[in-house]
Amino acid sequence: MFNIYVYAKTLMIIREKAMQELKLITKDKVKIAVNYYNNRRGRAVIIAPGWFMTKDSKSFKEISEFFSQYADVFAMDFRGHGRSSGFYTFTSKEILDILTVTDYAHKTYNDIYLVGFSLGAAIVIEAATKRDYVKKIIAISAPAEFSKIENQMWRKEAWIPTLQKCELKRWFSIRPGNINGKKVNPVDIIQKVKAPTLFLAGEKDPTVFNWHTQSLYEKAVCKKDYELFENCSHAEDLFIQDRDKFIKLCVDWLFSE
């Protein structure tokens, strides 16, 4: 049984270890900021937050510190977010960001795992079709198509978690760009993904309804699994609202043989 007290003490120890911020440059000259947790684990997890979230958000720091118990971690800010430069293009150009991080990590690590949240999950799926060294994926609240995202922000399942995660420094760091750029729909490419993929969704997700993730799971031809979190909402909220289940599923999927 997962012990939250032991987990909290472990996080305190991990926080004392060195965490280095990297600055990587994409092919289109955007600077991508990455928190690198190097505990010499011999394998790497790359964490890709969604729209309006950053590597330095409280929940993503906790997620990064958790994964760093099992692998070295690269937690990134996509363009237009946090300490990265540029403007966010809602998955049109962010593929360049994650490939820059994965290629950098692959210079040191053979085993690369990708964990994406919301639009970050859409980008992770696309990245896996372009890099065959990706070993495993976790796609959390992944949209099937950007144009079909519901985003019902007036529902309590949306605005209550948003208020609970209020971080003014993060909010002021977000720089949206062109939302109308050409996008790759995950549903159109999911059959190209060869890496084993775990799909996670929230039953009460008001932003990306869980049918999105369910449809991606059904169309995927790789080794796969799907888990619906009852009474949970969107993306990192699965970690916040049902931490024990989230941790167990992720550990079992990524690190069990």
Concise overview:
By secondary structure, this protein is α/β, with parallel strands linked by helices. 37% of the residues lie in helices and 19% in strands. The protein has a single domain, classed as Alpha/Beta hydrolase fold, catalytic domain (Rossmann fold, 3-Layer(aba) Sandwich).
Descriptive account of the structure:
This protein is 37% helix and 19% strand. β5, α4 (119-130) and β6 (134-140) form a beta-alpha-beta unit. With 257 residues, the chain is of the alpha/beta class. It has an eight-stranded mixed sheet with strand order 1-2-4-3-5-6-7-8, sandwiched between helices. α3 (94-106) packs across α4 (119-130). The protein has one domain: 3-Layer(aba) Sandwich (Rossmann fold), CATH 3.40.50. The chain is globular. The chain contains ten helices and eight strands. The mean pLDDT is 91.
